[in-house]
Amino acid sequence: MQTLEGKNIRLRALEVNDLAFLYRIENNEDYWEVSNTYKPFSYHLLRQYLANAHQDIYEAKQLRLVIVTLDNEAIGFIDLFDFDPHHRRAGIGILIAHEHQGQGYASEALTLLINYAFTHLFLHQIYANITVDNIKSINLFRKKGFEKIGIKRDWVATQDGYKDELMFQLIKK
Questions:
Q1: How many domains are contained in the chain?
Q2: Contact 12/6 with Cβ under 8 angstroms?
Q3: CATH no. for residue 76?
Q4: Could you tell me if 131 and 156 are in contact, meaning their C-beta atoms sit under 8 angstroms apart?
Q5: Mind listing the pLDDT tens digit for each residue in 110-125?
Q6: 6-38 per-position pLDDT tens digit
Q7: Quick one: pLDDT at residue 4?
Q8: Cβ(134)–Cβ(156) under 8 Å?
Q9: What is the DSSP string of 74-85?
């Protein structure tokens, strides 16, 4: 079995034909809070992003993979960000499109990327930042062995005020 392929999904590099899906996700205001987005993206800007998506993680310091079903339907994204090869750590984020949530895809994708990060990138630790009201994500990351290591008070500004953000960490044993 390939490292980035599971029973129901696989993780693959961004491709030019992902433009419409990327546009739909990046411009959906429901996701902006978790992605720190504040304005819509144009097709032109996203086309440029896709043109540079081939950069190596050591150069770009991030890696975005598309989560696809085994019949190649794009259902979400999973990212490594703030990649630090010296300290051997990276942040991780995941987004599954609303219509595909609750089917175990996020859990499977997270398992695949954790394995990849530890076995191919030789990371020592991975961390995640999750707002306190994102119970599904908190439960998912805890299920994968992440431990809550702290809280950032009033960290995320919203239309209704501020939200605390929890910090989770997974250290390779």
A1: 1
A2: no
A3: 3.40.630.30
A4: yes
A5: 999 999 999 999 999 9
A6: 999 999 988 888 877 777 767 656 655 666 666
A7: 95
A8: no
A9: EEEEEEEEEEET
**Closest-CA residue to 94 (of 73, 77, 111):** 77
> In this structure, is residue 20 part of a structural domain?
no
The reply to whether 97 falls in a domain is yes
Give the closest residue to 79 by CA, choosing from 48, 42, 45, 36.
Answer: 36
The DSSP annotation for 98-132 comes to: GGGTTSSHHHHHHHHHHHHHHHTS--SEEEEEEET
- Residues 6+ positions from 92 with CB-CB distance below 8 Å: 78, 79, 80, 81, 110, 113, 114, 117, 126, 127, 128
State both tokens at 111: 């398992």
Residue 99 lies inside a defined structural domain of this protein: yes
Q: Which residue has the tokens 């440029």?
A: 48
CA-based torsion, 142, 79, 164, 169: positive or negative: positive
Three-state DSSP at 106 gives helix
Residue at 160 is within a domain: yes
Give me the residues paired with residue 139 across strands: none
Domain that includes residue 146, residue range: 9-13+58-171
How far apart are alpha carbons 58 and 42 in whole angstroms? 27
